[in-house]
Amino acid sequence: MGNPKAFLEIHRQEAGYRPIHDRIHDFGEVEQTLSTRERKLQASRCMDCGVPFCHWACPLGNKAPEWNDALYKGDWEQAYRLLNSTNPFPEFTGRICPALCEKACVLNRFNHEPTTNREDEGAITEAAFREGYIQPRTDIVRNGKKVAVIGAGPAGLAAANDLNLMGFQVTVFEKNEAAGGLLRYGIPNFKLNKAIIDRRIRLLEQEGIEFKYGEAVDVNDAFAKQFDAVVISTGTPTARDLKAPGRELKGVHFALELLSQQNRVLAGMEFSKDERITAKGKDVLVIGGGDTGSDCIGTAHRQGCKSVTQIEIMPKPVEGPEDPQNPWPEWPRTLKTTSSHEEGCNRRWNINTLEFLGENGKLTGVKVQEIDWKPNPEGGRPIMVEKGKPEIIKAELVLLAMGFLKPEHPQYPDNVFVCGDAANGASLVVRAMASGKQTAQKVAAYLQR
Question: What average pLDDT does the structure give for the chain?
Answer without folding.
Answer: 97
